[in-house]
Amino acid sequence: MERLKRQRKTSTEDSDDMKRKQFHSESQSDVSLSTKPHSYFEDLSNEIIYEIFEYFDIQYIYETFSNLNQRFANLIINSNLPIKINISSMSKPNFERYYKDIIIPYRQRIKSLRITNIFAADIILTSQDNISKLTRLETLILTNVSSSYLRNLQYLIYLPKLSSLTIIRDAYSNTDQAEVYQKIFQLPFLKYFNVLFGRFSTPVVSSLPVATNRYSLIEHLVIKNYIELDTLYVILSYVPQIRHLSIPFLLRSVKRQNITFSITLNNLSYICLKLAQLDFHDFELLAKDLFHNLQVLRLYVSAGITYLDADRWQNLILSHIPNLAIFDFQCIWFGTPEKNMMSTYENLIKNFTSSFWIQRQWFFSTQYPLKPYKRTTFTLGGLIEEKSNFDSVHHIVIDSVNAIMNCRNYFPNTTKLTFECHGDSICNSLDNSLPRIISPEKLTEIVVRYAPISFMELVKLLSVAVNLHRLSLDHISIDGINPVTIQQNVVFQSVSKKNVVKDLTLIYGRSLKNVELLFALCPRLQHFAVHNEFTSFLARLIRLILSKTNNNNHHLSSLCISKKTDKTEETLKMVIKNDRLLDDYMVECVDNKIYVWW
Description:
LRR_dom_sf; eleven-stranded parallel β-sheet; single chain; F-box domain-containing protein
């Protein structure tokens, strides 16, 4: 449910949109007032060009404009404007040149730094001297950094403007989370913290002591790990200024101990929770402790029929959440929708029709009732009984092929698609059904889990998702077809020439032929990862991937494989050395994954 009328909220997206509109308006004004029409980009004033630069990271600006002429070179070199750095898929030589020409000379201008390359993070951020030079850094985003770097987080205390920090490590890890949290809470200017340590199911450790005399200024906190209720209370004791809290996986406390919370969070106005195994009684205690000034509550509950007690909700809101303006509540039942169970749910929902709910314009119904829908991720499983506005959805999770064919809604802004169709072939959905519910050309990432996908199904998928950059597959098969026949297929050849897939993950390798076909299909790959069922042909796999005579790997610059045995890393290094496959490269093992960068 969600109140339909609301005040406009300011956000980063709103700010960027306003900035674009303002820039567009000012540009039109400048053009109309000028006696000389701006027919060429070079005719624009320095001020307008600097405004354009704000929308790109410095790597793109440097590569695009620095060699045009001396004027543009000077605009880049002599400017004092803040710059954005985004280091992801980049070869080792290109990074070294970029590091030498851009990062080191202009460290004092870096405002935003995003690193998804573990080697780059070690080079840039392990030196206290390097970090201390980042005097204008406000936003730091780290993905898949090594455990060794997390032990150096105390260096971030030297950054006088660091207000936003994101750390995402989507891998199994033995990181001492309590130590990391302690270091984060000591950062003097941090206002936003978004964290995932290990897999989502890795719980936040409970060894962190309750805060007593040292507190953080964090106002916006997102914890993506599983976290128990008592541990959440401990963490909140460090952030008395918190305004916005998001916990995707909140669990009941295993010890079931009585929890008391002595700090009043006067500024906490927004909470987003996804509850697992937390009964309504525990939730009520949480609300009584924390929700006094809450204005927005987004709540997701699975198989929680006790949460559909309208009278209990009304009493809780009137007594402990009096300022609640937006109530977005989703209760999901997993399993076969038995008639008796659906009838029970519908009867409970009918109780949410009293004047209390109507006056607040909070309306309940089965399935997905929100108009417009406000979540960014949508799970397409059962029937949707009514048409809605799904402009906010950027990620669709598809449970079954039938769900695609039965869907009557359209998701115009979807950029990521996840198939979780156990055993179903997705082939039949690609020709007609999928383009009917999304714009395939807008997709930049596709994940196929649990069920194998055949090569020709993948070819068909890439033929419609023409702007796809990231692809992750659990299994892939050739269905007994000769690999040569597959490569000679006209559609295969067309897709191979046009697709722009740069990042490919294969969970189960199984066959060297499969990997070879994937490289032929996606010759612009920059990063490749394979995690299981490859040890029997590991040496041949490394030779295939790193061979200098392979015409399909010219853009490849990084590799990730799971460390299945103690000999995996040794075998990899031996093959590279003995066959002289690489000259200048780095190897690092992080969380039982071996990374190679060249």
